[in-house]
């Protein structure tokens, strides 16, 4: 643990000024994330999305060593997301009790392909860990890091095939029921990244989606037509009218929900099929550098 903390220090210092991991989540923050998730088509059934609804109970902050905090719906290059991020969970005052010492979490990174161009093989599993622990911190800042647990699939960096449009990647945090049992073929470490269906895994295990952070990565210009999504109008969020005026997070992030098109920088600097498997040290305290696998 000591070594891990020391290794992370320079990186943390580098992006400390750019990141803003909140101290608590407001009802508006959570509704905005739900709306962005739906607008990105991530709740769509089958292989069009993950087929799982989000009712966020916390803000999920994904902090990559290369640039800092992921903004939902923004486009990043494959290089920017090559190394595993650090993950933080920030409940609201009213949901903090649900993140306690007995809570266990499943965390995954999955690819829903580009909007309007689903992958016929399903979603793609880029990371999977379960049995993670962590409780809301006490005091004014409720943020905590989910730790320990079992890493089933090591972090396998996004590297979409050239021309397939802006792929939608999401870190998904689930609350595990006390009866949780991992499917037998996904119960021990060392399972490669591969296509699967998030909704099947959710149905099999009874886990509940409680937080998500999502972004896109694109490799070259799309060769087919790709749908784009609309920005969330924060004024339409139910919690907005109840919240005090000038909610900074609400208005700030309202423009960042268009995953495709607008802010894409192409990501084409990365060769097709490139993949990087890296250490998820900051995430689960696991150390070990693994080989390179073919992936999407
Ligand atoms: C809350 O705590 C997290 C993790 O301890 C920290 O990174 C973040 O900066 C804090 N946020 C605020 C607003 O103080
Ligand atoms: C702890 O959190 C779990 C959900 O993660 C919940 O089922 C349980 O009731 C909570 N316990 C307390 C004492 O709030
Ligand atoms: C959450 O609780 C903290 C400390 O208990 C308090 O300072 C803060 O105002 C509360 N926030 C909301 C939105 O109720
Ligand atoms: C695990 O088993 C299920 C059927 O129960 C199958 O659909 C899946 O492809 C298998 N492999 C992985 C890695 O999920």
Number of β-strand runs: 10
Write down the secondary-structure element order.
HHEEEEEEEEEHEHHH
Number of helices: 6
Mean pLDDT: 78
Give the distance, in angstroms, between the N- and C-terminal Cα atoms. Answer: 32 Å
Task: Sum up the overall morphology in one term.
Answer: globular
Structural class, from secondary structure content?
A: alpha+beta
Strand content: 15-25%
Largest sheet: 7 strands, mixed
- The level of helicity is 10-25%
Bound molecules: 2-acetamido-2-deoxy-beta-D-glucopyranose
Q: Low-confidence runs (pLDDT<50, min 5 residues)?
A: 1-18, 240-296
Radius of gyration over all CA atoms, rounded: 18 Å
Assembly type of the chains comes to single chain
Please explain how this structure is put together.
This protein is an alpha+beta fold. The protein is built from six helices and ten strands, in the order H-H-E-E-E-E-E-E-E-E-E-H-E-H-H-H. The protein has helices at 2-15, 27-39, 198-205, 238-242, 248-253, 281-284; strands at residues 58-64, 68-69, 75-76, 86-91, 105-111, 123-132, 150-153, 167-175, 194-196, 208-217. Strands 3, 5, 6, 7, 8, 9 and 10 form a seven-stranded mixed beta sheet that branches. Strands 2-1-4 form a three-stranded antiparallel beta sheet. Strand 1 and strand 2 (68-69) form a beta hairpin. The radius of gyration is 18 Å and the shape is globular. The chain starts with a helix and ends in a 12-residue tail after the last helix. Mean pLDDT is 78; it is low at 1-18 and 240-296. One 2-acetamido-2-deoxy-beta-D-glucopyranose binds next to loops.
């Amino acid at each position: 643990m000591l070594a891990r903390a020391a290794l992370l220090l320079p990186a943390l210092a580098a992006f400390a000024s750019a990141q803003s991991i909140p101290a608590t989540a407001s009802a508006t923050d959570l509704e905005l994330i739900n709306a962005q998730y739906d607008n990105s088509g991530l709740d769509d059934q089958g292989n069009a999305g993950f087929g799982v609804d989000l009712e966020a109970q916390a803000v999920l902050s994904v902090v990559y060593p290369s640039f800092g905090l992921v903004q939902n719906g923004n486009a990043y290059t494959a290089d920017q997301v090559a190394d595993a991020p650090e993950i933080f969970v920030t409940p609201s005052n009213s949901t903090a009790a649900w993140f306690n010492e007995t809570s266990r979490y499943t965390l995954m990174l999955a690819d829903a392909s580009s909007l309007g161009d689903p992958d016929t093989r399903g979603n793609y599993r880029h990371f999977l860990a379960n049995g993670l622990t962590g409780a809301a911190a006490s005091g004014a800042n409720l943020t905590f890091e989910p730790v320990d647990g079992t890493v089933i699939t090591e972090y396998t960096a996004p590297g979409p095939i050239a021309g397939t449009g802006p792929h939608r990647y999401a870190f998904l945090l689930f609350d595990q029921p006390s009866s949780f049992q991992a499917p037998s073929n996904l119960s021990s470490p060392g399972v490669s990244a591969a296509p699967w269906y998030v909704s099947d895994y959710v149905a099999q295990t009874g886990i509940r989606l409680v937080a998500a952070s999502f972004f896109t990565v694109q490799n070259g210009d799309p060769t087919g037509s790709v749908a784009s999504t609309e920005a969330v109008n924060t004024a339409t969020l139910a919690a907005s009218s109840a919240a005090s005026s000038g909610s900074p997070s609400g208005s700030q992030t309202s423009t960042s929900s268009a995953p495709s098109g607008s802010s894409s920088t192409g990501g084409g600097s990365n060769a097709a099929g490139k993949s990087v498997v890296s250490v998820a040290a900051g995430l689960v305290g696991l150390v070990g550098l693994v080989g390179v696998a073919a992936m999407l």
